[in-house]
Amino acid sequence: MEQRRVLPTVEDTEALGRELAAELGAGDLVVLDGPLGAGKTALTRGIAAGLGVRGRVSSPTFIIARQHRAGERADGPAVPLVHVDAYRLGGDLDELDALDLDTDLHDAVVVVEWGLGVVEHLADRHLRVRLSREPESDTRTAVWEWIE
Ligand SMILES: Nc1ncnc2c1ncn2[C@@H]1O[C@H](COP(=O)(O)OP(=O)(O)OP(=O)(O)O)[C@@H](O)[C@H]1O
Ligand SMILES: [Mg+2]
Question: If exposure means fewest CB atoms within 10 Å of the residue's CB, which of 25, 52, 64, 137 is most exposed?
Fold first, then answer.
């Protein structure tokens, strides 16, 4: 079932990420969609905080995929996070293959910005989060759903 939330501030977006993290474990794929600056990386920062992984989440502009080692997780088994920005891949499936995300998916949570239509086949199901924004406003809206 699709869920929706209005996110007035970046803190609200990060808080949603922390909440979503509670549903995530090894093998789970998260596909983030939304325009530049919609808050995909901010949401990932919240997911990382919820999972308790190590290292600061940043926009992987020059690195396509960043690995965060498992840390301390209060609400479940510790799990690593792989944060991918598929923007620069531009749908290049060979480069995507080279990232070997299916191997990561054995024991990590994999979050992919700009992954819509590109990475879904890597897992049996995925959490799709769409972020949208209004011009001249900080408010974002998130719509999310597990797709089987
Ligand atoms: N409600 C909000 N939710 C998320 N970010 C917000 C919000 N209000 C303002 N911002 C700001 O918008 C920017 C969102 O940037 P972020 O890098 O998370 O977007 P992105 O979707 O990852 O962009 P890109 O496609 O370039 O990777 C940040 O500067 C953040 O502080
Ligand atoms: Mg980003």
Answer: 137
Residues 6+ apart with CB under 8 A from 101: 65, 82, 84, 110, 112, 119, 122
Q: For residue 64, what pLDDT is reported?
A: 85
Q: Output the residue whose Cα is nearest ligand 1's atom 1.
A: 9
7 lines ligand 1 (CB under 6 A): yes
Ligand 1 contact, 115 CB (< 6 A): no
Name the percent of the chain lying above pLDDT 90. Answer: 80
Q: How far is the CA of 42 from the centre of ligand 1 (A)?
A: 6
pLDDT in tens, 43-92: 999 999 999 999 999 886 666 899 999 999 988 899 999 999 988 887 78
Could you give phi then psi for residue 117, rounded to 5 degrees?
80, 5
44 lines ligand 1 (CB under 6 A): no
